[in-house]
User: What shape does this take?
Amino acid sequence: MRIPAVVALSLSLFFAGCSVGPTASTSVHPSVAVGGVVHGGQQPISGAHVYLFAANTTGTAGPGVAASAGNASVSLLNAASTHNSDSLGAYVLTDASGSFSITDDYSCVPNTQVYIYALSGNPGVGTNTAAGLLAVLGNCPASGNFLTATPFVSVNEVSTVVAAYSFAAFATDATHVSSSGSAFDQTAIADAFANAANLADIASGLAFTTTPFGNAIVPQSEINTLANILASCVNSAGTISGPTNPTACYTLFNSAKSQGSTGTVPTETATAAIDIAHNPSADISDLFALPTAAAPFAPNLTTQPGNFTIPLLVALQPTGSTQVALGQTFSTLDLSQQVLGGTPPYSFTVAQSNTTPIAAVLAGSMLASDYAYHGGTNTVSVTVTDAAHMRASYSFNVTVSVPSVVYPVFGIDYSPYENRQDPNAGSQISVDQLTRSIGLIAPYTRTVRSFGVDHGLENIGCIAHKFGLGAYINAYISKDTVANETAVQTLIQLAKQGCVDVAVIGSEALYRGDVTAAQLTGYVDEFRAAVPAVKVAAADTYYEFTQNPSVGADVDIILANYYPYFEGWKISLAIANLHAEDQQLQKAFPGKEIIVSETGFPSDGTSVGNAVPSLANAAFYFLNFESWAQAENRKSFYFEFRDEAWKTGEGPIGPHWGIFDTTNAMKYGADVFAGATIPDNWSCTAPVSGAGTASIAFTSVPPIGSVGTDAVLQGQTTHVAPSDYYVAAYIFVNGGWWTKPTFASPRTAIQCDGSFSTELVTGGSDPSATRVAAFLLPNSFGDPPAVGGSATLPQALYQAAAASLIVNR
Assistant: This one.
């Protein structure tokens, strides 16, 4: 990236980059005059070729950039009118008095930068082909000519020094002055050309003692000294010979090479002036010795300077382009520390091309940024203006880099705690921490779901929206009714502020027994009454909704948690189990939107039944689940964003649920985000063991007295498609049959391998049951009969069952 600048205390600080070719275009404008004189010192130069150039706007030039067709200055004169042209372009000639006039010969594009270049001619001692002089006309007026803007121009060594130092950052040599066509670079080169008017009077060709505004000192003696150095060659026959008895032109050109003491040797004085501006510390003594006692410009320096900088000119030390990740900022810059030269006080302005990815923020001299919220590039242009109204600019790109993601998931469960932070200890989470961590996951998801609205978590929704993410914001519900009411009211206020897309009341509050179904729906209704335009949901384990149907009926959306790990399913059957459970929930609430609010698999910890935590299993579960979610066109939230060290209290698995680890490195999921899926392994549409007579058998019947996880009935079905059948289980206790596991959940799903399991003990005298019955029923049968203490089982079960089984315990 090219970093444009206007002028510098040391012009070697500026950079330039690649170039493209210009296209010259001229047309005749009657009575459009630019007139003036070309002098060497105080002597007229006759027969000089006077060219009118505009800086190229399609390429870049400057120190260290080779001259090429792509950065050549654009010739403005019309050869058909001037009747004179050469390889540089059309030109007019000066007369015996050094005068020239450009009439009917040119037009310029408004706002391009224009200058005069005079080459060769006779300063009174014979033709000097080494005489090259410059003068800045500046910004092309809206009229496309300088008829009223610049009536008379003196082109001499002073105007050459002023021009060279003004636009040196954009010049390779006198005929290659160029800047890219971007708005920022065009502003920068305009500032550069404008500085010339602060240093010398264009009509007289004399350096000012103070700027036209009268509030800054012009280094007149230094400008005159440089002008006298050029005059030593200009006011000669232009002979270039040496090193023995070197001529003035030989010494000048060999002391003003393109890289200082090395590089290309100039062949005329205008390019020599540009090279000195590029390398102001090179060969000082040789250059300072060139003027004679009769030097034309005074006052001048009487002692040799340390360098040939022009300290009045203000400049900014460039800042390189930078990349910023989502959720991050770029380092704050103190622009006052980057100013070179000029006259204080300084003022700063900033222009920006695209603030959508990241916005620069200027406060006084301090340049900072907002957070990066989207991918893209913002070109930031900084301009300094000093007390003398001199300006300098540079621009730099801030690119917000975003990982390439083919498939962002619908949602990720987001909890921001890191290091030793613990919600149970009241850790306060800052906006900065939230923004940086949401930025980390923003490319990988379309929505985030939170778990509270206090201690900083209330800011999650609004921050997520800045990244373009949806926000499901949770009011955490516990046994503390005062805290519950505060949470609901906070959620209401956030929703009214537009920071909530879906309001979530509670997170497994029914599962923990913190509130009743009536209390939970009370909070739901309270929110709905206050913010009817925002959908409201409750989040809990899937079976709590079937056991508490009033909650599922009341909410706009059911957020159901599924954890095959906790149910002991081996990894290959985990999603089939989830699918079966989800099918049952959808049957219980037809037409209701059901979203998977939590599911996941730990990457480390202890096994539960056939569920074995490991990084490989966690990765497979994520891939399998997201394949299911895509195929079934289901909204879902994956648990969770990042490992949380504070969850050690939840046992060995607690800290190991994250897609990212505690260092923010992705543990697994790259295949999912790259768009990978696996075939359907959850629908279970093929008959287990192939075609045959349907059968059902128990593989494990818990003994009398069993409770908890020991009271789980397990069995196997064969020769039926698990997707088309379910198992209805009953126990016989105290002289009667009872539906299991509950009246609200009378169906037991069959896994893809034909296995099934269900709880036999859910309360009362269940541990004492003496008989267990199971019926293999088609889904078309509907829900099985609810039985509560009947001495016999309904005949409809026997009639509809593909197979049945009753055993004694």
User: Anything to note?
Assistant: The first helix runs from residue 79 to 82. DSSP finds 18 helices and 40 strands in the chain. The mean pLDDT is 91. The longest strand covers residues 391-401.
